Amino acid sequence: MTELVHPLLDLFKKSMKHGRLAHAYLFEGAKGTGKHQVSLWLAKRLFCTNLIDEAPCQQCINCQRIEHLEHPNVHVVQPDGQMIRVDQIRQLQAEFAKRGFESGRQVFILSQADKMNTQAANSLLKFLEEPSGEVLMILETQSLGSILPTIQSRCQIVHFPPIATKDLYEQLLQANIYPQTAKLLTFMTNSYDKAVEISQNEWFNDAKEEINKWFDYLKNDDFMAFIFVQRRLVPLAKDKNQQIQLLDMLMFYYREFLQTQLMQVKKVQAINQALAAILNAQRKLQANVAFQAVAEQLVLHLLKKQ
Fold it and tell me: For residues 45 and 35, is the Cβ–Cβ distance under 8 A?
């Protein structure tokens, strides 16, 4: 397991180095911005037995147990169905009462904290009103406005901005995703969670190969590109979301091709026109024009422009 890449880690490294870690944090940001990864990183940093440059080693028994949610002093709460219920918060309080004084530091992580019902939120508030130096509480949310202001006021709020493309690419490489696929995924989304989810989808991997073939036909001015639409792409694209993703992939291949042709003015002009045509095709799909008609018109336009 390799070291986590996230722009906020330096902030926490400095806080911990100077003994200024807050007792409660509220991590807010869109899905896939790394909130849960950083929560686990903080827990590992507290319990790691072999720190490397102020960061957890990711290899010791404590790091491994936290990674697999098996550490007795690190408690992760997920919604029970559609919400976090009061009995889940009370169970956390019971865990602290039972273990806190005999086991040292405790870390409590509430994933999707905005899913707490009223009773759970009030119970958590009482817990936060009596902070202990031995407890680190981390709340994660995509919706800051759904968290009670009284809870917000007792936490240090940390905003998680969208992940920079370079950082997302590095994270995907660490997740053992091939470099070219990782580059494609960063073009399709700026969410780590979404990128990993897409990469594990069998349809995505099939579609990636088919669009690569389609692009080769188009690039070589081969009329097979037109036939390919009906034979391979129409059966592949079952709904509008998949159809738009196919055109996203085609746009990615054209953009990559553009980087290799920057010294050839005519080629650059043709590729830019192709990119504009793909964007126009996506607008037609959004306007409910049939995918086959859109894709075939796109092929005829691109072949004429080569």
Answer: no
Inside any domain, residue 176: no
Report the candidate in 13, 7, 104, 24 with the shortest Cα–Cα distance to residue 51: 13
Residue 132: pLDDT above 70? no
Q: Considering just the CA atoms, what is the radius of gyration of the chain in Å?
A: 25
Q: Are strands 156-159 and 135-141 parallel, antiparallel or unpaired?
A: unpaired
The answer to whether residues 224 and 217 touch, using CB atoms and an 8 Å cutoff, is: yes
pLDDT in tens, 174-231: 889 999 999 999 999 988 888 999 999 999 999 999 999 999 999 999 999 999 999 9
Q: Domain count for the chain, please give it.
A: 2
193 within some domain: no
Q: Which own/partner contact pairs does 234-240 have at CB distance under 8 Å and 24+ positions apart?
A: 234/291, 234/292, 234/295, 236/203, 236/206, 236/207, 236/210, 237/291, 240/285, 240/286, 240/291
d(CA 179, CA 181): 5
**In the numeric block, which tokens belong to residue 254?**
């054209």
- The whole-number pLDDT of residue 1 equals 45
Q: What is the largest CA-CA distance in the chain?
A: 76
